[in-house]
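Fold this sequence, please.
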Amino acid sequence: MANTHDIKVPPMGESITEATVADWHVQPGQGFDSGDILVELETDKVTMEVPAPVAGTLKEIKKESGVTVNVDEILAVIEEGAAGGGSSSGGDSGQSEASGDSSAKSDSGQSSSGSAEKSNDTLAPGAQRLAAEKGVNPDDVQGSGKRGQVTKSDIVDHLEKGGSKKSGGGSSQAAPAPAKRTAQQTGEREEVVPMSRLRQRIAERLVEAQHTAAILTTFNEVDMHNMMNMRSRYKEKFKDAHGVGLGFMSFFAKACVDALKAFPGVNAEIRDTNIIYKNYYDIGVAVGGPKGLVVPIVRDVDQLSFAGVEAEIVRLAGKVKEGTLGLDELQGGTFTISNGGIYGSMMSTPILNPPQSGILGMHNIVKKPVVVNDEIVIRPMMYLALSYDHRVVDGKEAVGFLVRVKECIENPERMLLDI
């Protein structure tokens, strides 16, 4: 008799005890290989994938999509054994085709659909399901995952860029523009979409921050001329030497560390009736992901080189896009940087990320006439905003912090000389 195994909700990290069952990648009766993703769980921070511990067949689903589950609850029962076609209907796009008669093959070796499909090794399960739903030919999509694997985000990006879809004959053609939705066409003027657990948690934390902290924002304007000149002069040599591009974020991360050392209250937090001053600098970098804004942490920025900061940001941003960010990569930041400038924002008042006491908002760069040495010149200028918790940080400290960041950016050599 074949062995059966319970698939349980795995531990999800400190302070996270429940999740929502998102999407099942395998249906009862379907076979799978060891390591294949069975189901996605959505927590208030990240989406987790639950892999199969052994090869086998899904026997029973205990928790359907949309159900809230706790750690160690049973999600499904699997039967151990070689992956097989199972008893689910042949129309399922995720059906395993291990058996020789699972689908008819044409003389050319292609499937009966007439179009060559990417193998499971190069198509993530979530992407496979989305491609089937949207009629996208995976062969037309450039994969960004490991070993060129096509991820769900790649499918989404492909569709947003007007990518091709499968035609009836198996060839690709440009997707027609969607018809404009009107009340006459749909019969509805509203669409009700349940909030994801991540979006719910974002909403809760934003309201929590405004209710628990005394948030104020101070502004300054920084001349990006010298920094941009330095970057232009050395970016090619920098990339050749370190294998990563030289962006703006490493300059601002290093400038913030310099300012945090000078004004430690901005790097502190309130815990009960105590103020905890942090002697380490774990900087959160806000990144827009497919399911909302997340803030992965770049650890010990003071100990990293510019190249080290850039490489870590690239790594974390890639994991955000793929949806593979770990919980440990989201916890424990001491300060946050948010760059609304990449979306065209001129000025904003960023909201604190509790329990932190400060967040820096960067904005878009605009050429303006400014006075330099009593002469009017055109310079690339950026507004900076520092939101801070007035319970910990006084106005004088906040202004001083922002002036220090401004001085570092306008004179970037001082960061290299540590002065």
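Residues 122-163 form a domain with the Dihydrolipoamide Transferase fold (CATH 4.10.320.10). The CA atoms of residues 144 and 150 lie 6 Å apart.
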